[in-house]
Write a structure and sequence with these properties.
Layout: E1 6-8, H1 14-25, E2 30-34, H2 41-44, E3 49-53, H3 63-66, E4 71-74, H4 82-95, E5 100-104, H5 119-132, E6 137-143, H6 154-160, E7 162-165, E8 171-172, H7 177-190, E9 196-200, E10 206-207, H8 208-219, E11 224-227, H9 230-239, H10 244-259, H11 268-273, H12 280-286
Parallel strand pairs: 1-2, 1-4, 2-3, 4-5, 5-6, 6-9, 7-11
Antiparallel strand pairs: 8-10
Length: about 300
């Protein structure tokens, strides 16, 4: 098999860096796009990784990054310029004759969830449509909520013994971002799956009470789920310095999740790429200290 020339964008972020590491672990050379190499020092030591600087909003800065690329995975921050950023990158890929663009997208696991009612799934669909119309070969990776999202709640869990979320009695099927990175790496190495949208969920449909109970069992500390209102959550986020556009988006997301309380489990993409699904308990075991487990 001829090794493809691979570009991972957003390599300084959580998703991109995990994909870079998954490729490096298989000794696959990879070009990693970052805005500032000094902020991606942890990737410097990985064998086969070439860091390149560029701004996805500036096509001219991407010429070297895209030169000779066979496959690129498209990742950028979920911010108020995500559509402009990713569509500009797609244009740059078209000009550089990139063979295959993999869009790191998203899809809520709630049955009946309307993606148009949440800013970021709405915008992901807009970018997907733009990529599909570009003439490039494409694949969409659509993971559900990440297990890593619960690490943002770790301080409250550790200090107050509570998981404070406005999600009532809904169920979700969160996926470990490492699973998604493993799937992305396999797709970047082997290609194929052109013009497919690949749904990725975790292996369990869990309520917030289930999640709190798992964290309690692993850490040995009392943890309870405390349902709060969307308004209370927004106030907490504002006090934490979260930007208004993001707070508004999360309120939309919570509202639509509450309207559609049941979650599907779909492991077909894990199975197609030979990735063993991570259970939530295994994820918590890996991060037990973050959640308050004593040594």
């Amino acid at each position: 098999m001829t090794t493809p020339t691979i570009l991972v964008t957003g390599a300084g972020g959580q998703s991109g860096s995990l994909i870079v590491r998954a490729l490096a672990a298989q000794h696959i050379p990879v070009r990693a796009l970052v805005r500032d190499q000094s902020k991606a020092a942890a990737l410097h030591s990985l064998a086969g990784v070439t860091l390149v600087e560029g701004d996805m909003l500036q096509k001219g800065s991407l010429r070297y990054a895209l030169e000779g690329i066979d496959r690129a995975i498209l990742i950028s921050s979920s911010n108020d310029r995500m559509v402009e950023t990713q569509c500009t990158f797609i244009d740059a890929c078209k000009e550089a004759h990139v063979g295959h663009v993999i869009k790191f997208s998203g899809e809520e696991s709630q049955i009946g969830y309307d993606p148009q009612r949440f800013k970021f799934t709405r915008e992901h669909e807009q970018i997907e449509d733009y990529l599909e119309a570009s003439g490039l070969q494409w694949t969409h990776l659509r993971p559900s909520q990440f297990m890593q999202a619960y690490l943002r709640e770790a301080a409250a869990i550790k200090n107050k013994g509570g998981l404070y979320l406005p999600l009532e009695a809904i169920r979700m099927s969160p996926v470990d971002l490492r699973d998604v990175a493993g799937i992305a790496a396999e797709l970047l190495i082997h290609g194929g799956h052109h013009n497919e949208a690949l749904r990725i969920t975790g292996p369990e449909s869990l309520s917030m009470a289930d999640i709190a109970a798992i964290i309690a069992r692993v850490t040995g500390n009392p943890v309870r789920y405390v349902p709060i209102t969307i308004e209370e959550r927004s106030t907490l986020l504002k006090e934490a310095g979260v930007q208004d556009y993001f707070i508004s988006a999360l309120a939309e997301q919570a509202s639509e999740r509450r309207r559609n309380p049941q979650a599907q489990v779909d492991l077909s993409t894990h199975e197609r790429f030979g990735i063993t699904p991570t259970r939530f308990e295994d994820f918590v075991q890996r991060h037990a200290a973050d959640f308050g487990k004593k040594n």
